[in-house]
Write a structure and sequence with these properties.
The protein is an all-alpha fold. It has helices at about 1-20, 20-30, 40-70, 75-100, 105-110. It is rod-shaped, with a radius of gyration of 26 Å. Keywords: Membrane, Transmembrane, Transmembrane helix.
Length: about 120
């Protein structure tokens, strides 16, 4: 939905700049918009692109995350719990390494699930 809105706004912006006279004629055909300048529509479309652009990027990031999860055969819950467990284990390993414990080497041998960078979660 956001992609459709974004692409429509971009199309209309390009249309305004490439076919300015045709755009003005279309606006004149609509009764209550006759007195509005072309700059009003440009500002409106730029605002909509400015709002919907970041939302589109967030949606795209969410799609990428779920494609990754599907490739790993994980649910979102399993991924979150595994990621949390791995972060806790890393903190514990850092503490044990400082104290010279051998449990850190044993945990290093266990299977770990691939995770995405923090900015992709």
């Amino acid at each position: 939905m956001i992609g459709i809105i974004l692409s429509t706004c971009l199309y209309l912006l390009v249309d305004i700049f490439l076919n300015a006279d045709d755009f003005d004629l279309r606006i004149q055909e609509i009764g209550f918009m006759k007195n509005l300048p072309r700059e009003f529509f440009v500002a409106l479309l730029v605002t909509m692109v400015g709002i919907n652009g970041p939302l589109f990027l967030l949606d795209f990031q969410l799609v990428v995350l779920h494609i990754f999860l599907a490739s790993q055969h994980l649910t979102t819950y399993e991924y979150i719990m595994t990621k949390r467990s791995q972060l806790e284990d890393a903190e514990n390993e850092a503490r044990e390494t400082e104290s010279g414990g051998q449990e850190a080497t044993e945990r290093a041998l266990t299977k770990r699930v691939r995770t995405l960078p923090h900015w992709m979660d």
